[in-house]
Amino acid sequence: MKAGDLVELAARNLRESVLRNSLTTLGIGVGVASLVAMLSLGIGLQQLANRRLERSGLFDTIMVTSRRGVGGFNRRAFENGPPPAESRPLDETARLEIARLPNVLEATPDIRFVTELHYEGKPHLTMVAGLPPSARENDAFENIQGHFFSSETADEAILQIQFTDDLLGIHPKPGDPSSKLNPTTQALIGKEITLSYAERIPEPNVSEAKPVAGKKPGPPQTPPRASRDNDEPAAASFSVVPRERKLRIVGITDQDPDGLRGASGARVFLPLRMVENLHIMLPSGMRESEPNFSSVPTYLSLSVRLKSPNDVESVQDAIKKQGFNTFSILDATRNLRRFFAVLDLFLGIFGSLALTVAALGIVNTLVMAILERRREIGIMKAIGASDGDVKKLFFAEAAVMGFVGGILGVALGWSIGRVINIGTNIYLRRQDLPSENLWAVPWWLVVGAIVFAILVSMISGLYPAARAARLDPVQALRYE
Amino acid sequence: MTDNSTGPGAIRTEAVQRHFRMGEATICAVDGISLDVAAGGFVALLGSSGSGKSSLLNLLAGLDRPTAGAVIVDGRNLAEMSGEELSRYRRHRVGMVFQAFNLIPTMTLLENVELPMRFAEMDRSRRPELARQALERVGLGARLAHRPSQLSGGEQQRAAIARALVNRPSLLLADEPTGNLDSRTGSEILDLLHESNEQFSMTVVLVTHERALAERYAQRLIFLADGKVVADQPNVPTSRRTAERGPQSESPAPPRKELA
Q1: How many helices (H) and strands (E) does chain A have?
Q2: pLDDT tens sequence across B164-186
Q3: What is the mean pLDDT of residues B86-105?
Q4: Percent of chain B whose predicted confidence (pLDDT) is above 70
Q5: Which of A101, A120, A178, A348 has the most other CB atoms within 10 Å of its CB?
Q6: Does domain B11-250 bear CATH number 3.40.50.300?
Q7: Could you tell me the residue ranges of all domains in chain B?
Q8: Cβ of residue B163 closer than 8 Å to a chain A Cβ
Q9: What angle do CA A249, A254, A260 make, to 5 degrees?
């Protein structure tokens, strides 16, 4: 029998006992709905978490340090790798190479230093960090007061809220709730602040005895001078010149925008490109051995941002092959993904329970139909239906119920989800929290749910269909 | 082709047996029957209930398989066919008419008659027209959209004949087709079978327990008892005469109502 005829006959058979079949179909619908509701909650939560994590910059970022640097994060890799002196410097060439790796969005140097800032004549010692333009997407700037840097090279600064307390001379008592954006801090925006820094100027002919006078930022971990002298007798020379730069405060954030890079907690942020152009004397520069260090900038560490947290492992391997140390919070994402996989599994099993009950309903309905249509099956066989035709007919009936039930279930599940989402958001608003979309019904879930419903229905139809096909026509036709 | 013993619709059984197990006992419903029916013949199988005539008919129809022996139709042994082949045989070679009409109650007459064509995978666009023609031929052209329950017994049986003939089988098997009908309607039904036999040179096997009816239509009477042939005699049908005289003169036959 042709497929069109099968579906037509199946549909008319279903219409004949419309109440019973509707109830069975509704059962499948409820089963699918519970499955869809559970899974879309799981998916929604996962997407919510991923959105948060991606914006935090924690999970799609790899820290790259030179193996020469004693400050490398991964001591073990450092010990196992090639000797420090033979490994590559982490310079601009290496940065460009890393930036060109597949799945890498950008590789930005980490520039941070402790220095003095003058506001209204008073000096304030703090940690300053350069921010790449991509930091604009960082969720720390979601509730920024003021705005982000107007350009990559603007003489502008964004302050961290704690630092504004310093500037304004406020000393919150310990235990007080942390500072909040308020009109007082608002007043700082547009004001000028003066950055004092030490510029490094190459002096190829001067020996290492360099003037370290002036306002050179005190590196937190100054390497022992003696060893440096021994290792690098012919190191290039440079002079350090104290300089000042006026910056305009454009924004204040109440969160630490620095993610992974924020381990040392910078309080003032400047546009990265602008800071680079200042040629600030950095702690890394103290150990620099390349004679042409000035033409090719060398970095203490790079932050490599990736397209997706999933790429961390492959990119990390690629960077390690180039001879650098890397660090990421990959294991944390791994655990997170494992957690959501388990959550989805549990939600799925929970949702499937209702579908299992519905599947039993199909078996029951079709077995009843066989008893009722015993004679009809006999007739069909007598006038030329094969066992296969009868089997397919019952399969088709199960599939039609599954298909209709699947569509019904997706619609129902989607509605349930909407209701839960709306309810949650009403609750969140009452708690003064931003509303969240913790509900997602991706298209593959819609298609998958319908296909799954058909599949489950057809599996339920296996036994009844086989039983109907086995029916002996002579027996079926024997009595009126 | 009327006397061709191998043409379409020719039947031969060779010592065919059909046993049923009823608990411990074995019942020999068909117990070694050997028959030859020429293509285009009209044969009546006669016997009391339990004589094995319906069982034999089911074997001829390919609805049942013999326990032993051979059933050869159109030169092919049904006993050796696969289930799929048997269903194809039933679909294309056999038309069946039952005592209980066996129309599908949820379908209209047109749909009922279309059903065998569905199984034969006939072109969808041609089916309604062919079904309508088949129903018109049995005088039900005005009842296409009716369901079986809206029709009289005779009309239902005529629809069943239309269904049996729609795939143009070479073999028409009728199992007590008049058993649920009054004598006049029964005669009309047998006239239809007779017509098919003559017009399409279709082999007709009629199972009945009414000798008078068989004598009027069949060219050969085969008497069965306990699964064996007890008599096999040629017969000169009287139907042509009765048909000419019209239905009014059919009174000689005794009333045959509710004899099933």
Answers
A1: 15, 11
A2: 999 999 999 999 999 889 988 99
A3: 93
A4: 89
A5: A101
A6: yes
A7: 11-250
A8: yes
A9: 100
Residue A378 pLDDT greater than 90, yes or no: yes
Average pLDDT over residues B125-131: 93
Domain boundaries, chain A: 3-54+336-478, 60-110+299-328, 116-296
Least confidently predicted of A103-107, A149-153, A476-480, B115-119: A476-480
Using a 10 angstrom Cβ sphere, with 0-12 exposed, 13-18 middle and 19 or more buried, the burial of residue A18 is: exposed
Q: Per CATH, the architecture of A60-110+299-328 is what?
A: 2-Layer Sandwich (3.30)
A39 Cβ neighbours under 8 A, 6+ residues apart: A344, A347, A348, A351, A445
Section A22-48 average pLDDT: 88
**Are B88 and A474 in contact (CB < 8 Å)?**
no
Q: Could you give the CA distance from residue B26 to residue B20 in angstroms, rounded to a whole number? A: 6
Please give the pLDDT value at position A330: 65
When computed from its CA atoms, the radius of gyration of chain B, rounded to whole angstroms, is 18
Q: Which of residues 33-72 of B touch A (CB under 8 A)?
A: 58, 61, 63-64
Q: Which of B88, B102, B121 sits opposite A1 (nearest CB)?
A: B121
Tell me: pLDDT of A235 over 70.
no
Query: Tokens 């924020």 label which residue?
Result: A262
- CB neighbourhood size of A479 (10 A): 7
Q: Hey, are the CB atoms on A381 and B63 less than 8 Å from each other?
A: yes
Q: What is the dihedral of CA B247, B250, B251, B252, to 10 degrees?
A: 180
**CA atoms lying within 13 Å on the CB side of residue A100:** 7
